[in-house]
Amino acid sequence: MMRQFxxxxxxxxxxxxxxxxxxxxxYVYATKMHGDxxxxxxxxxxxxPVEVAGILTELHLDCATIATGLLHDTxxxxxATFDEITSMFGCEIAELVDGVTKLSKLEINSSSPSQAxxxxxxxxxxxxxxxxxxxxxxxxxxxxxxxxFIKSHDxxxxxxQETLDxxxxxxxxxxxxxxxxxxxxxxxxxLNPDGRDTVIRRLKELDETKSAVLDDIAYEFHxxxxxxxxxxxxxxxxxxxFSIWSKMQHxxxxxxxxxxxxxxxxxxxxxxxxxxxxxxxxxxxxxVPGRFKDYISMPKLNNYQSLHTTVIGPNQQRVxxxxxxxxxHKIAEQGxxxxxxxxxxxxxxxxxxxxxxxxxxxxxxxxQLKTGETAEEFLENTKLELFTDxxxxxxxxxxxxxxxxxxxVLDFAYAVHTEVGNSCAGARINGRQLPIxxxxxNGDEIEIIRSEKTLPRPVWxxxxxxxxxxxxxRHVLREQEETSFADLGERLVKSLFASEGVEAKREFIERAxxxxxxxxxxxxxxxxxxxxxxATDVLVSAFPSKDKAVLSSKAGARVKDVVSNAKDxxxxxxxxxxxxxxxxxxxxxxxxxxxxxGDPIVGILTPEAGLKIYPLEASALSNFEDQEERWVAxxxxxxxxxxxxxxxxxxxxxxxxxxxxxxxxxxxxDFDANITNLSLFKRDDTFHDLALDIQVxxxxxxKQIVNALRACSVVTRIERLVAAKEV
Length: 727
Ligand code: MN
Hints:
Blueprint: H1 4-14, H2 20-34, H3 47-58, H4 63-71, H5 74-77, H6 82-89, H7 91-105, H8 113-126, H9 130-145, H10 153-173, H11 177-191, H12 193-227, E1 233-238, H13 241-251, E2 262-268, H14 271-284, E3 286-287, E4 293-294, E5 307-312, E6 318-325, H15 326-334, H16 336-341, H17 358-371, H18 375-389, E7 390-394, E8 400-404, H19 409-416, H20 418-422, E9 424-429, E10 432-434, E11 446-450, H21 467-499, H22 506-515, H23 521-529, H24 535-542, H25 548-567, E12 576-578, E13 587-589, E14 601-606, E15 610-615, E16 631-636, E17 646-655, H26 660-670, E18 674-683, E19 687-696, H27 699-710, E20 715-721
Helix pairs in contact: 1-2, 2-4, 3-4, 3-9, 4-7, 4-9, 6-7, 7-9, 8-10, 8-18, 9-11, 10-11, 11-12, 12-13, 17-18, 21-23, 21-24, 22-24
Bound molecules: manganese (II) ion.
C-alpha cells in the first residue's frame, strides 16, 4: 500500500502548489473512518481508496480529485456524513464525494445490453462534474485489478460483465483509451479466459516470427525521418487481446487475416512536424489508397488528434501508421483526464490549447455530435441526444426505465403497468411521498403508491407526457364515460316507468332492446343517456299497448311535475340524484350557474352532453319550454357528512384599502372553505367590485359565510350568485 508521504510526493511532483495539508488530512481521516474494515483480499479496506488515489495521480489530476479518491467510500461504508466532510474538506470535495457515492448507488445488475446503454447515459447525465466520473472509473479499475480475490464466481462474472458493458465504453467515450483497454482486458480474462488464452498463444507465435521485424520496421521509419530532418520516436505496437478477439468475432476472420494487429506510432515535436513526417513517409513508401485520415485539422468528437495512414512497408506488408505530437498522444490515451491535467497546453493542440476545461470538453463533445454528419457520428448523436433529452429512473427492484425529460410519476406508473397507472395515487421518490404530477429527475428511485379508490380523471391527461400513458388514460376515460351514460340512461328509463306506474322489470326493458334492434341492455341505456333515444320510445317499445300520443300529451304536464318536484323539500323517488360520481361525465352543471345543495334544480337532457343541471331560477330554462321531453326531475344526493364541495360565486364590493382582501380571505378560511378564483370588475380609489369563487358544502354553508362577510367592515355589499352576471 502506498504510504502517506509517497502519495503526497507524487502529487507535489506534478503540481508543486498542491495543498499538502489537505491531502494529509484526507489520508488520515479515511484511514480512521475505515478502521479495521477488510477487503476480500484480506488487506485493510483503506488500501483500496489509497490505490484509487494513486491511479488518479497517474492522470495528474488536481488535489481535490485526489482527496476525493481517498474519501470516495467514506460516505457509503463508514460513519462519515456529508456535513462532516463539508466542514473538514470544504464544499467542493464534499460534492465530489457525494457524486461518486450516488453513482455507486446506481450500480445495478445490467444483464441486458439496452439497460447498459441506459445506465451509461445515466452516468453521464448524473455526473455534473467530470472529476466524479474520473474517480468512479479509477475506483472500478482498482476493483477490477483485485477482482480475483472475490470468492463468488457469479459475483465476479456480474462485475466483469458490468465493466465490459458500461465502464469500458464510458472510458472510451471519454477518450481514455488506456483505461478502456485495461478494463476490457480484465473483464475479458474473467468472462472468457479460454478465448483470451487462445489469442495470447497465437499472438506469441506471430511475435516469434515477427517481433524482430516489428523493431526493424520501427528503426527503418525512424532513420528515414531523421534523414529528411524530422526528429521523432517510433514505436511498433500490437493490439490488445480483447480488441483482436472482438474484431475476429465481428468480422468472422482468423487472426492471421487481421491486417492491423500491428501498428506504428510516430511521435514528433510539433503539429507542423506531423505533416512533414507524413510527407516523408508518403514519398518513401507506397500509400494504400483510401486509408489516409487527417484528425489534426478535423479532430474526432472526443478531441482525438492524429494523422492516420497505411503504407506498403519495408517488406511489402501493409503497415498502419499514426503520427501525432506528445500532447496529442496524451489526449489519445487519457482523453478528458489529459485535458484536466494539461489545462494550459501552449502548443501541440491546434487552436484549442488554453481554455479547454473538462466540463467544456464534454459539452463540446455533445455539441459536435449534434452537428455530426457521417453515419457513425449520426448514430452516436442519436444515442447521446437521448441522454440529454431523457431521464432515467429506477423501480424499487432496480429496473431502469428511460423517459423523455418532463415525464411525471404518472408516466412512470403507466410504464410499469397499465393497471399500476390506473390505480396510481402518488409515489415515494427516494423515500419521499409526492403527488402524481411530480416531474421525474435522473436517478430517482420510484415506488408507486396505489389505491383502489383511484380512478383516472380527465385532468390526468395534462399530467402525462408519454404516448403510452395518454392512450391508457383515454381508454379508461372512454369506458368510464360509457358507463356513466349507461347509468344515466338507466335512471331516465326507470324514472319514466315509475311515473307511469309500470314496474321497470329487466324482462320488459329487454323486450324494447329487441324491438329497437339494439345489441344489449347496456347499449340501450347508453343511447338514452346520450339523448339519441327517448325514454318514451323505450316505454312504448316495451309496452306496445301504451299509446305514444297519450304519453306525449302527458309530457305537457311533465314540466309542471319537474318544477314542482324542484320546489318540493321532499323530492319524489323517481327524481334523478345529483351524485358526485356522475358529475363531469354524463351529468354536469350548466356553465355559468352555481346551484348548491338546497337550491331547487332541474335537469335538461342535452344530446351527447348528458344531463345539464340548471337552477330553477335560470332564465335560460325558458328556451326549453316547448321541449317537455328533455326536462328531468332532479334531487340532491349529498349526505351531511359528505366531503363533496360545490362551486359558489360571491359578488361583492370591498373598501379599497390595504388588507381588506386578506380579511375576506381569512373569514372564508375560518369557515373551512377554499377560494378557487377571484376576478376584479371595477376598481376606483374607494371601492373594488369583485367576484369570488369558493367551494362550499351546501346552501347553509354558503349562507354562514355570506353573513360573516357582511359583518366585516371592509365589505360594503355582498350577495351570492346562482347565475353568473352578464358583463
Ligand atoms: Mn470504492
